[in-house]
Amino acid sequence: MTSRPALASDEPFLLELFLERKRAEFSAAVWPAQVREPFLQQQAVLWAQSRSTLETRVLERGGAPVGALVLGGEGNSLRLVELVVASRARRQGVARAALREVLARADAAGQPVVLQTEAGSPAEALYRAHGFVDDGGDGLSVRLRRPAR
Questions:
Q1: Most buried residue, 47, 88, 90, 138, by most Cβ within 10 Å?
Q2: How do strand 113-118 and strand 77-85 relate by DSSP bridges?
Q3: Which residues of the chain have pLDDT under 70?
Q4: Tell me, what's the pLDDT at 38?
């Protein structure tokens, strides 16, 4: 797995990645497609706008895009805003490799890493396995921090 800065030409992939994730999240909702799809398209536009001030990286395997990593700053911390892997590439070590890259970068800068994720999710287990500890939450989501090393 490698990562590189996202380019304008990556936007169609990033949009589809966002929509894939959101469609899965909304699969239990009983919204008709004619309501759900325009809503998700609107959310995708807002998501793209929110990334404009953040660092977005495309995760690749074999030269093909398989995920995205979004990073930002939060005080003296490196904030992992989003780490998402396309469904076709999950459970193949992509997220683990991307997380290790983020942690190496933070370690080199002497920064802690902070993030927020869904409580009880596989992502939470991955982060905890890499040294993240509780830093708050609301029951639905958990805020995690990995101290600087």
A1: 47
A2: parallel
A3: 28
A4: 83
